[in-house]
Structure formats: structure tokens, C-alpha cells
């Protein structure tokens, strides 16, 4: 039996990592030192791009049946509405924000993983590991004190902000800590005069208070503390903050969770060292502004899983794995920048700066194109990999995305429980069938309709364009696939036909 991939950490990132590997037929083990999954709501937001990937993985329906659909987010100052950003214009079939407690996300993903015959090995802790040329020797400690040595093919650290995997790899977690703390409460809310499924942000000279619906009448409330030191809030303090900063008439009761937190903005430079990888909070942490953290981590896992599967099956060259760090590190830099900017806008303290901010937001969000741009940015559908080493060709002159950009195809969502495959989006022709016959281990057996009949697109298993070319220019597609396979003796289709 081949060596398993060892996934450390069974939060949403580790669970989707293990489930994707299992879906692709890979041997995998997932461990977590905790005895049970979280019961706290923690990360709440699942954005459209993540829902698209969950749909391709075959589990989006369960999330949609469980979560609360939010169709807009609004920004207020007292009783004045400064802006309302609808999500219906997002260019995705999932044109909304799904609000779902992390406890439920973990429950659903654990069930999804279980469908492949795998469960989380709980109260099992990674204590050390040693990397080699052909695997990673990992030392595990079980709840009963038993020590086990696991010879893993690969190690994936999804073990959070205090990652042992990152520490043992010696990777610096570079960045800063914001000087402001926050308080958080999951409570029952009455008297809030906004749609019950709409996140709302209230700005006040003292700071902000934000309401995020979890279920009917149940909200997550977050407020910044300014210069006040971090401390555990009580319901009375949260009520006082809401009374002062909110719209008035809001009553809090029945707290489920009260806590405080600081904000770090940090990331590693490299997500890989040898046969060990980092994903999620182990690789990057940032402000919760924009609700991107869990989404980023889950998208890390989607990016890495198909590459690991192809390489381990020897259908792709090991160099494919080098693209993981460069692609996802670039995304993290952008998200960290966006969330940092949003946080600093919220935390403005100068009365003049606050008035200017409020005026700009009120005027700017009256413009439909601004509202659409912000909604699409938040949704994740604009995430791309413009500098990916996998990119080839160009979509210039064609109606469709270019290399590195997202292309959602019905064929991509039909891959099912099989090894990962690229999708060839092209007219069904002798040339297309010949390309599929030339690369049967990498391509789906049938071509898919292209966005423009005058072009050819090669779509990665995670729904991004690897190569694009005008019809007839099959050399670009052939070179992209041959490069993934690692064949240095690249031949064009014309050369193949002559042989």
C-alpha cells in the first residue's frame, strides 16, 4: 500500500484537504489533537467562489440547505444608511453570501469526508517529523500515550495560527499586530430594524459595531475596543456598546459565546518546504474584515489537492507542486492588503477623517458599477493567478477569460469521484479528440463547450484557465499539457500527425 498524505488539523481547511484527496482516490490520514470539533460559531462567511469549489467537490447542496443566505451587506451611521451592497449582481450561480457557523461547516465536511470512508483521528498529536527525499517520517502521540511513527508521502499542516508544522519547518511568520483589540458576542438580538438575513455595519465616532446573522434572531456582534486593553466582555458591556454605536432600540439576550481577540496580519513567504506544505491559518492570518480567512484556507486546500493527486499518481511532474506556493502566496498578499485597508477604514478615529469617509462611501456606493465591483471583489470570483508558471497562451481577441483566470464550466463540476482531470473547452472536432487521446491521463474524455467557438481553453481541475488559444492553435494546449506531464521532448500535433 502506498504511503498516505498526512493532514494535520481538522478544521475546515484540513477537512476539505483530506476530503479532496480522498475524492481523488489518494490514501490520506487526518489527525487533530482535540477530542471533538468546535462547538463555537467562529468563521461564519462562505463566499461564492468557495461555494463553486464546494459544488465541484459534490457537497455544496448540504451547505446551502443548512446555512442562511444573505443577499446584501449594509453600512450605517446611526439611523442613516450610507450604503447597501447587493450580491445579486455577482457573476456566479451562487450570487449571495452564505452565513453558517464554523461548527456546522466542520460537521458537514466531516460527513463529506466520511462518505469516502475516512474519519478524523482525534486526540492524536503530531510531535515531530523528519523530511526525506521520498517521504516524511512523522511521530504521533495518541490519547493513551502510545507513540506511532507514520511514514507519509507528504505532510500538510492545516494546524492553525500556532502551527507546529510551520514552527518545525523554521518558516518565519512575518507581519504585524494591530494595536486595537476587539470584542465578540454570539447573542440573541431583538429590535434591529434591518432585514434579518443582512449583515450590517454601524459606524460611530467611538468605533464600529457589526452585526452578522447566524440564524433567525441570532447574531454575531463584533466591536473594536480602541485603546482599551483586551478583556473578556460581559453581556452588559456588549449592550452598552450596541446602545451607543448602533441604531437604538436593540436588545441583546441569551449569550452563547463572549470573547475578545487581537488582529495579526502575517504570512509565510513559502508555503512549501520539501515534502511538507502549509495551508490556511498556518500560512496566513489577517483581519476578519471581509470574512475572507476561512475561504482563503479552503481555497488553499482545493489548489493543492489536485496537484498532489496528479503528482502522486505520476500523471504530472513534481514541478507542478511548486506552483502551489507562488499562486496562493500571491492571493494571500492581495487579501491581506484588502482586509488591512478595510480594517483601517473602520478604525478611523479623527472626526474629520470619519466625516470624509462617510461622505465618500455614501456618494460612491450610489454608483451601480462601484457596488458591483465591491461585491465581485468580496465574492472571490476575481481571484486569479496571473503569474502562475502553469499559464500558457492568451485569450486576446476571444470572448472568455485568459490564463490564470476563473472559468466555471459544467464539465468541471462533473468530474465526480475520480482522479483529477483538466477540461478541454473546444468544439468537438477530430483535433480535439486527438488531443484527448494524446493526453488521456490528464484530460476529461470529452471536450466541453468553449465560451467562444473561435477559441480553445484548457481548464484546470480547480476551475482556472491553464492555457488559451485561438481555434487551430493546438500547439499551445499540447505544450501546456506536456509541460504538466513533465515531458521535455515536446512535440506539436503536426509532428505527431507526420509520425
Automatic annotation (TrEMBL):
<dbReference type="InterPro" id="IPR050641">
    <property type="entry name" value="RIFMO-like"/>
</dbReference>
<keyword id="KW-0285">Flavoprotein</keyword>
<feature type="domain" description="FAD-binding">
    <location>
        <begin position="4"/>
        <end position="337"/>
    </location>
</feature>
<dbReference type="GO" id="GO:0071949">
    <property type="term" value="F:FAD binding"/>
</dbReference>
<protein>
    <submittedName>
        <fullName>Monooxygenase</fullName>
    </submittedName>
</protein>
<dbReference type="GO" id="GO:0016709">
    <property type="term" value="F:oxidoreductase activity, acting on paired donors, with incorporation or reduction of molecular oxygen, NAD(P)H as one donor, and incorporation of one atom of oxygen"/>
</dbReference>
<keyword id="KW-0503">Monooxygenase</keyword>
<dbReference type="InterPro" id="IPR002938">
    <property type="entry name" value="FAD-bd"/>
</dbReference>
<keyword id="KW-0560">Oxidoreductase</keyword>
<dbReference type="Pfam" id="PF01494">
    <property type="entry name" value="FAD_binding_3"/>
</dbReference>
<keyword id="KW-0274">FAD</keyword>
<dbReference type="InterPro" id="IPR036188">
    <property type="entry name" value="FAD/NAD-bd_sf"/>
</dbReference>
Amino acid at each position: 500500500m502506498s504511503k498516505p498524505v498526512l493532514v494535520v488539523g481538522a478544521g475546515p481547511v484540513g477537512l476539505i484537504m483530506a476530503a479532496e484527496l480522498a475524492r481523488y482516490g489518494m490514501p490520506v490520514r487526518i489527525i487533530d489533537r482535540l477530542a471533538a470539533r468546535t462547538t463555537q460559531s467562529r468563521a461564519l462567511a462562505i463566499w461564492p467562489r468557495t461555494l463553486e469549489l464546494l459544488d465541484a467537490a459534490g457537497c455544496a447542496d448540504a451547505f446551502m440547505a443548512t446555512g442562511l443566505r444573505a443577499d446584501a451587506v449594509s453600512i450605517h451611521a446611526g439611523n442613516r444608511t450610507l450604503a447597501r451592497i447587493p450580491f445579486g449582481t455577482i457573476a456566479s450561480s451562487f450570487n449571495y453570501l452564505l452565513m453558517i457557523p464554523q461548527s456546522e461547516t466542520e460537521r458537514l465536511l466531516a460527513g463529506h469526508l466520511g462518505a469516502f470512508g475516512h474519519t478524523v483521528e482525534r486526540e492524536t498529536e503530531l510531535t515531530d517529523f523528519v523530511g526525506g527525499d521520498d517521504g516524511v517520517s512523522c511521530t504521533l502521540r495518541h490519547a493513551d500515550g502510545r507513540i506511532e511513527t507514520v511514514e507519509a508521502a507528504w505532510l500538510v499542516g492545516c494546524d492553525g495560527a500556532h502551527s507546529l508544522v510551520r514552527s518545525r519547518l523554521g518558516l518565519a511568520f512575518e507581519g504585524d499586530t494591530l494595536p486595537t483589540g476587539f470584542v465578540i458576542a454570539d447573542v440573541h438580538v431583538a429590535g434591529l430594524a434591518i432585514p434579518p438575513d443582512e449583515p450590517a455595519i454601524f459606524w460611530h465616532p467611538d468605533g464600529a459595531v457589526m452585526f452578522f446573522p447566524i440564524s433567525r434572531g441570532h447574531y454575531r456582534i463584533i466591536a473594536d475596543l480602541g485603546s482599551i486593553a483586551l478583556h473578556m466582555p460581559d453581556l452588559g458591556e456588549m449592550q452598552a456598546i450596541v446602545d451607543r454605536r448602533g441604531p437604538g432600540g436593540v436588545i441583546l439576550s441569551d449569550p452563547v459565546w463572549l470573547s475578545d481577540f487581537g488582529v495579526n496580519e502575517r504570512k509565510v513567504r513559502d508555503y512549501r518546504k520539501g515534502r511538507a506544505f502549509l495551508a490556511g491559518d498556518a500560512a496566513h492570518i489577517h483581519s476578519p474584515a471581509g470574512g475572507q480567512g476561512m475561504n482563503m484556507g479552503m481555497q488553499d486546500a482545493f489548489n493543492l489537492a489536485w496537484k498532489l493527486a496528479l503528482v502522486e499518481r505520476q500523471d504530472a511532474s513534481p514541478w507542478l507542486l511548486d506552483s502551489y506556493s507562488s499562486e496562493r502566496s500571491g492571493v494571500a498578499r492581495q487579501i491581506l492588503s484588502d482586509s488591512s485597508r478595510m480594517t483601517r477604514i473602520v478604525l478611523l478615529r479623527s472626526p474629520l477623517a470619519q466625516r470624509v469617509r462617510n461622505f465618500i462611501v455614501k456618494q460612491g456606493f450610489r454608483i451601480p458599477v462601484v457596488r458591483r465591483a465591491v461585491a465581485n471583489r468580496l465574492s472571490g470570483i476575481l481571484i486569479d493567478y496571473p503569474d502562475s508558471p502553469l499559464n500558457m497562451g492568451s485569450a486576446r481577441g476571444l470572448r472568455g477569460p485568459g490564463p490564470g483566470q476563473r472559468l466555471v464550466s459544467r464539465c468541471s463540476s462533473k468530474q465526480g469521484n475520480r482522479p483529477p482531470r483538466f477540461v478541454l473547452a473546444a468544439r468537438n472536432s477530430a483535433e480535439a479528440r486527438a488531443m484527448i487521446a494524446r493526453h488521456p491521463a490528464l484530460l476529461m474524455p470529452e471536450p466541453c463547450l468553449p465560451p467562444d467557438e473561435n477559441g480553445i481553453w484548457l481548464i484546470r481541475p480547480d476551475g482556472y484557465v491553464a492555457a488559451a488559444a485561438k481555434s487551430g492553435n493546438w500547439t499551445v494546449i499540447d505544450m501546456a499539457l506536456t509541460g504538466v506531464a513533465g515531458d521535455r521532448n515536446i512535440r506539436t500535433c503536426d509532428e505527431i500527425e507526420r509520425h
